[in-house]
User: Fold these one by one.
Assistant:
Number 1:
Amino acid sequence: MIDADAIVLPGVGAFQEAIKNLRPISDVILDQIQEGKPLLGICLGLQLLFTTSTEGGLHKGLDIFKGKVVQLPLHVKVPHMGWNTLRIVKPDSPLFEGISGGAYVYFVHSYYGDVENEDEIVSKTYYGTDFASALSKDQIFATQFHPEKSGVTGLQILKNFVEYVGS
Amino acid sequence: MMNGRVVKGIGFKDLRDAGDPVELASYYFQQGADEIVFLDVTASYEKRDILINVVERTSDSIFIPFTVGGGIRSLEDIRRILCSGADKVAINTAAVKDPNLIQQCARMFGSQCIVSSIDIKRVYLADETEAPERVILETPRGKCWWSIYIYGGRQEVNRDAIKWAEKVVELGAGEIVVSSLDFDGTKQGYDITFLRELSQRVSVPIIGSSGAGIPEHILEALTVGNADAALAASIFHYGTYTVREVKEYLAEHGVLVRL
């Protein structure tokens, strides 16, 4: 990881199990981020970057994005599984270069990150509630959706991250 | 698919070659399909490696969710298929024979990976008293209940399809895909009555499969049938319509689609 140009934190599954598996290397990740290494968190990977999560109890995350991971409202079908649209809040984010507002991306999640600092929100999506579908802070990016499953739009987002790392 | 080639038939019979699955999947992906489903009908269990190879090559070429089903018998099968790159697995026969499989899968891989595939066929009756335990509904073709089939439509299981669907959701299935033996390959549409009834009873996404002949059938499945998604095969495989054309038709008629 130390030799890598960037870190990608993917994830499908439950917070508790994932953070437990991540603990042995979480110090390395945090050090690398301190040194300015780019990181992209995807889905559960986004949630792991938060201060805490309420999934399966109260658990601590990596505390990179200040806030809490909470469940989607119960008046909608959970998990949120399927295509939904992006409302881009930070259009000049390198992550969304060439992506237009209203683009569809693919979601599979029951929880979302409720971030304290609104400035860290890159895009919002509506599903039962308005939630942050993408976040960024310095060289750290995170998406609640799966860019690798989001067709051409997703591929462009991944490409944007790779180009950001290269620059 | 059979032996690594795409096939198409009517009522699950008279299968004809329709191309290379990876090429077709890639083509549909580029055309804007939202998801791809592979159903393997290869008779021989030993030819499993062909399927794994197709799954691996497909996951290298397409970047939308894809589901693999057909002859999946065990947790090990499921693990292999998911690890080869599939996002979800569709299970029919194995779940009917051992419903616990769904529960085990959901626990191990998550409900979002498990699609319950249900093959249905209408059993018409003159009188409701003929089948007291069944969910009987009025259809344009008469009163009926729906029985389920396993082994690729070859064996009937005397069981109510609606009740079975409710059961699989309780056990942890994340989605249900419904194929109708009455409508499959006939180009007469989907079993709308069944889809609508099921949508009112379960809280997971329902995918209608079998029967689309024209875009209007798909529109009907999504609106009147209240299905969350529609699966179509022969209208696309034989080039009668493109995915793009169907989506544009749906958008024109007020359905929210990804274009």
Note: Chain B has a mean pLDDT of 91.
Number 2:
Amino acid sequence: MSLESSPHTPELIACPDCDSLFVLRSLSDADRVVCSSCSAILYEHKRNALSRATAFALSALVLLFVAHFFPFLSLEVGGRMNEIVLINSAGALYDFGSPWLALTVAVFVVGAPAMLVLGILYVQLPLARGRALPGAIVACRWVYDAGPWNMIEIFMLGILVSMLKLTKIATVHLGIAFWALALLIICVTASLGAIDRSDLWGRLEVAKRRP
Amino acid sequence: MNRPAYREHTAASHGLASCHVCAKVELMSETTCNRCGATLHLRKPRSIQRTVALTIAAIFLYLPANILPIMTTESLTTGSESSTIIGGVITFWQSGAYPVAAIIFVASVVIPVLKVLAIFGLCFAARSNRSPISATRVYRMTELVGRWSMVDVFVVAILVSVVQLDSLISIKPGPAALAFAGMVILTMLAAHSFDQRLIWDRSNRHEHE
């Protein structure tokens, strides 16, 4: 691939961990560039990054819907059933007088993953056609900011631990949202992992310049 | 003598700053990144002070988080019963659920202590010039594991919202749940405020003295 047709022109890159400065030329044929002083990954070429990240995010969107609106745990005590749906649980916690717990669940388990998935789709779907919707750059920054606050995998471990606690007092059944949540974790991780950061920002920059 | 403020061959020594959001390298004379609009910093402002302040605040929450009850079970048959995090671990251990007891113990008791020690260690590393590579490895670990401490807060949240069977049995959250969530969030913010490049900034200064 010639340098002209490559989306990557020679560019300066600084190591995020130790700030060493490098000049990268014709990135497209390099698979992986590693910092010479601290071995942080500076650049990793990912094949079909945009379409793979978008495909996983689309699956995640469907799973997000199931995970949020269907029961993930049901409890049976003496003929009485109690189901718990993720989207209601924050409201329920608020009603039971624990607004802080409600906020924790709402932000880390409902809000952050939704923001990640919707953000990725909002930015990447139009980019497949070389377009950027208004606010795409802000949305893309949000995706990076939301990353560490998405705690669905930790919540999943929480469900398993609470199941063990509950088996002593009741019969516990896992709902469909539990399995959706498990697949959602895989899809969100795969989507984030497929994103080629410099390629994505490069495409956004080009799309923004288009009239 | 005029000492160079930054290691040679770094972006900073060339008057360049890499955007912390999109990684674009820009001239330091710019105030915002012209690609993503994020504010440009050579290094995160007052990084060490913020990190230390947030970590100290987290330490203050660590004690109530472990001493106060994390939840209270009110049952028609056994009455009201409060349990702490350690109490929960002991119950799991006695009932033979050793892996679960170990997971909760590590996530709730061990990781927060290690994380606080690691963050202080990083702040010292940023002030000295010894073994930056191992400090960087500690930093990468710190970013990954801290979030898992949240697991006990989620367990309480799930139990409180599912075990609500009126007079029969109900579970209420205790003050430790809030202290615990606060502690995890503060240590996450502390790690986020730390600028990992500070670890390397002094590492070859001596050669120029």
Note: Chain A touches chain B through 57 residues (CB under 8 Å).
